[in-house]
Amino acid sequence: HARRIEGVDKNICFIQEAFCKAVNGGVHMHQYTRAFGHPALVKILAKFYSGIVGQEIDPMEDVLVTVGAYQALYCTFQALIDEGDEVIIVEPFFDCYQPMVKMAGGTAVYVPLKPREGSGPAKSSAEWVLSPEELKSKFTPRTKAIVINTPNNPLGKVYLREELQMIADLCIKHDVVCISDEVYEWLTYDGTKHVKIGKMIRWLYACQQIVWLNVTQRFLAASLPGMWERTVTIGSAGKTFSATGWKVGWAIGSHLILKHLKTVHQNSVYHCATAAQVEHKICVMGVKHMSFHFLTGVTLSPVVLKEAVAVGFQREYDVFGTEESYFQQLPALLHEKRLRLADCLRSIGLNPIIPQGGYFMIADISNLSKFQKSGSTKYSKRK
Ligand code: PMP
After folding, report:
1. Helix, strand, or coil here: 62?
2. Does residue 74 have its Cβ closer than 6 Å to ligand 1?
3. Scanning 68, 82, 221, 260, which has its CA 20 to 30 A from the CA of 283?
4. 156 lines ligand 1 (CB under 6 A)
């Protein structure tokens, strides 16, 4: 176990090394880059995710690099939601969705994940499910979008293919956009697999390639709408490479949708903000030749961060699916920490819900109110 952790720590260095190289990478590394994404980064994101989604992603059209996933979400809501639109949000949810919908003039409509009935107290996030009937009832002619977050913050639920298919069918039926927040996509545990909703229904296309269909069938299959055309998939370099302070994120989707996000991006931040505070981090990383200083007002260009993320993704592209892959090593490391945290929570009388993915763990705290009511010595003494 110790060796594994050591190994992971060693491997995390690849992203720090990429960062240091980028810092020293010449004058152009400290200037503006392409507003919609540093070319090296959009190219590797497109190459990496084309293979995963099974869809040719155009780096210049279908990818937008943003100030963290947060700004990708902001651009998406501002671009796609109009006054009076409804946006379905699955509870529990990452807290910015609701205010962002409101700021865009929309109305949030909630639908809860609930523990499956009759199976006793839930122990795993897998036991929390959507009621298909309840979800269906939330779609109205005013529904513009639904937000799906898998793996979910804070519950840790990782949606099953069947659950995503059910959501996808409703999106297609009601002509609704899916905003898929997948920032924790590489953090899944116990063999749970992350599935991309943007990929759903692509199998029809795949079938077309292998099965001989007559002309009419081919036409029908090709004209059936898939999820790629209506999904904005949001990712974060901060979560992907455990460097949350970098604030590099992205939105990937059809250029027909992305062009509207780009308009918001261009006319709000235009380009990722400079990252002066990173200097402190560089010191921690031990870079010897610092040529700029926080106090002088010379700031570190975000191009450096984007270049470093591009190098990180290129490395992952090269080792994907092997033990060398950080995307395999990181969940192995967090798996142990997750179990340790669950043990701690149990030891003080709480019931943790073991997350299938993500960074967070929720716990049933009803025992605490029992302690408080009875003035329990156990709780008050420890306090
Ligand atoms: N989505 C979810 C579900 C998150 O938990 C977070 C960060 N906590 C974000 C988006 C924002 O990510 P970033 O730091 O890349 O802006």
Report:
1. coil
2. no
3. 68
4. no
Residue 185 has pLDDT above 80, yes or no: yes
Cα 118 to ligand 1 centroid, rounded to whole Å: 33
Q: Which of 64, 97, 153 should be mutated for ligand 1, with most atoms under 8 A from CB? A: 153
Q: Which atom of ligand 1 is nearest to the CA of 244?
A: 14
Atom of ligand 1 nearest to the CA of 67: 16
Give 248-301 pLDDT, tens digit per residue. 999 999 999 999 999 999 999 887 643 333 333 333 333 332 322 233 333 445
Q: Which two tokens stand for residue 194?
A: 């992350």
With a 6 Å cutoff on the Cβ, whether 244 touches ligand 1 is yes
Give the residue from 53, 135, 132, 42 showing the smallest Cα distance to 88: 135
Q: For the chain, how are helix, strand and coil distributed in percent, rounded to 5?
A: 50, 15, 35
pLDDT digits (tens, 9 = 90+) for 325-353: 999 999 998 998 999 999 999 998 899 99
CATH 3.40.710.10 given to domain 33-273:
no
pTM, full prediction:
0.84
Residue 71, burial from CB neighbour count under 10 angstroms (0-12, 13-18, 19+): buried
Mean pLDDT (the chain, rounded): 82
Ligand 1 mean position, distance from CA 354 (Å): 20
Ligand 1 centre to CA of 70 (Å) is 6
Taking the domains of the chain in order of start, what are their residue ranges? 33-273
Beta-strand ranges (E) seen in the chain are 63-67, 86-91, 107-112, 114-115, 128-129, 143-149, 177-181, 231-236, 248-252, 351-353, 362-364
What is the residue with the minimal CA distance to atom 5 of ligand 1? 153
First to last CA, the chain: 33
State the average pLDDT over residues 239-251: 90
Alpha carbon distance 365, 127 (integer Å): 18
